Amino acid sequence: MIDYQLMMNLIAICWGVIAALFLGMSWYYLIYIVLSFKKVPQVPHSDKKAKFGILVPARYEHKVIQTLINSLEKQTYDKKLYDVWVIVESEDDPTVEIVKKYGFNYFVRDELTPERKTKGFAIQECVRHFKNSNILYDAYMVFDADNVVSPNYIETMNDLYQTGVQVGSGYRNFTNANKNWIAAGSAILFSYLNQFASRGRSFMFKKCNLFGTGYFVAREVIDDAGGWIFTGMTEDVQLTCYCFYHDVYMKYYPYCEFYDEQCTNFREMHHQHVRWVWGFFEKRKHLKHGGKIYNHNTKKKYNIALFEYNVSVIPLVSYCVVLIIFIILSWSFAIASIFFAPKFTFTVWMSGLGYFLILYATFAFIATIVIIRDNKHLKLTRGTIAASILTYFLVFGEFGIAFIDGLIHKEKRSSWKVIKHVGKEGK
Q1: Do 173 and 426 meet the contact criterion of CB atoms below 8 Å apart?
Q2: Measuring CA to CA, which residue among 105, 114, 142, 115 is closest to residue 228?
Q3: Cβ(44)–Cβ(400) below 8 Å
Q4: How far is CA 112 from the centre of its chain?
Q5: Is the distance from CB of 240 to CB of 387 less than 8 angstroms?
Q6: Three-state SS annotation for the chain
Q7: One digit per residue, pLDDT tens: the chain, 427 residues?
Q8: Cα–Cα distance between 104 and 168 in angstroms, integer?
Q9: What is the pTM of this model?
């Protein structure tokens, strides 16, 4: 007969040991929290000006792109010093007419095979066109069609570029964070990645994370890499990895602000998560080779930065997996005890519930910390704050569902699902 009390005691001891190990491995999470309250020094305004190529992959995004185009047209930066290139797949795309109306450039892709449908391949073709046509820019800046850019965005990014930063990322704000709990949860996730992870890495290692758009990358970095080689399902993760491997000087700069639209329904969020999760697991070996090592850190700091980046998600993921295993074990024992030792059923069931509440409270705590730190930017209403704290467990837990879905359905790992955008001016 199973000694249920002994089993629960053993699980509790294992949990205590694993929790201690998790805290020991998570030193950088604590440092990130502290550094999130440290002010990022503003760089001086520069009279020296770079020329930027603004790249906007936009496949049939005519319903939303005008807001982005309008915000780019209203930039305070000298219009002669930046060119907007909207990348489309067909001359018949209605997006083209909107671009023409503003006098901006468009580039029609001609290498459209099923395996080359990603945003990375679109940018690769456009950058290759620049090289073949002898069109030179000091740096490239990437946006999505649903983004909205603050009027001084390019000008502020130029100030950052002139300090020697090779890859700069601005603050990603949100046009629809108050729409529902799904949009709010996504906003909280990106706010953490902005204000905690990227901010901390900027201070500690001259590095940051890139999240889709809103960043610039110096042309020298792309040229040294042999062109735009970041063509996977998550080209932003690949570019970030390349920068860590080659010690590129990166900086998160919150004084540059752009707005992004978040998913508002579960199905589309799931499609995104499958792409992000499995894009994260794509092979990175080719990103280590070639190119130039820029040596912006000492060898010791370089190794620490690379180690921290490569293991950054492991403690939290391991913590969640272990708790889920304990929950399953506890409730399995509880069900078995109904038939063999009913007097233990309630105790064992409550033990499993306790582990579930620990897991649930972890994500409620994370959401609360992010909101306390960053709601001056997010501007979530009281109702949305309450809903997002209560449901953040579901938003983050959906990554686990996305992983399992991709594990079962391999074709989903490399399929690009269109995410519908509504479009809205950033506030």
Answers
A1: yes
A2: 142
A3: no
A4: 26
A5: no
A6: CCCHHHHHHHHHHHHHHHHHHHHHHCHHHHHHHHHCCCCCCCCCCCCCCCCEEEEEECCCCCCCHHHHHHHHHCCCCCHHHEEEEEEECCCCCCHHHHHHHCCCEEEECCCCCHHHCCHHHHHHHHHHHHHHCCCCCCEEEECCCCCEECCCHHHHHHHHHCCCCCEEEEEEEECCCCCCHHHHHHHHHHHHHHHHHHHHHHHHHCCCCCCCCCEEEEHHHHHHHCCCCCCCCCHHHHHHHHHHHCCCCEEEEEEEEEEECCCCCHHHHHHHHHHHHHHHCCCCHHHHCCCCCCCCCCHHHHHHHHHHHHHCCHHHHHHHHHHHHHHHHHHHHHHHHHHHCHHHHHHHHHHHHHHHHHHHHHHHHHHHHHHHHHHHHHCCCHHHHHHHHHHHHHHHHHHHHHHHHHHHCHHHHHCCCCCCCCCCCCC
A7: 566 677 777 877 887 787 777 777 777 788 888 999 999 999 999 999 999 999 999 988 888 999 999 999 999 999 999 999 999 999 999 999 999 999 999 999 988 777 787 899 999 999 999 999 999 999 999 999 999 999 999 999 999 999 999 999 999 999 899 999 999 999 999 999 999 999 999 999 999 999 889 999 999 999 999 999 999 889 999 999 999 999 999 999 999 999 998 888 888 899 889 988 888 888 888 899 888 999 999 999 999 999 999 888 888 888 888 889 889 988 888 888 888 778 878 888 888 899 899 999 999 999 999 999 999 999 999 999 999 999 999 999 999 999 999 899 888 776 666 566 565 544 4
A8: 24
A9: 0.90
Q: Phi and psi of 415, rounded to 5°? A: -95, 140
Single-letter code of the amino acid located at 231: T
d(CA 386, CA 375): 13
- For 414, other C-beta atoms within 10 Å of its C-beta total 17
Letter for the amino acid at 311? Answer: V
- The first and second tokens of residue 355, run together, are 């582990």
Residue that the structure tokens 């306790």 belong to: 354
What six digits make up the tokens of 8? 């629960």
β-bridge mates for residue 105, sequence order: 85
Partnered with residue 409 across adjacent β-strands are: none
Closest CA to 305 of 295, 297, 313: 297
Is the backbone of residue 128 left (phi > 0), alpha (psi -120 to 50) or beta?
alpha
**If you search the block for the tokens 């807001």, which residue do you land on?**
67
Locate 46 and state its tokens: 């520069």
CB burial class (10 A; 0-12, 13-18, 19+) of residue 374?
Answer: buried
Residue with tokens 């001259």: 206
Q: Tell me whether residue 195 is exposed, middle or buried, using C-beta atoms within 10 angstroms of its C-beta: 0 to 12, 13 to 18, 19 or more.
A: buried
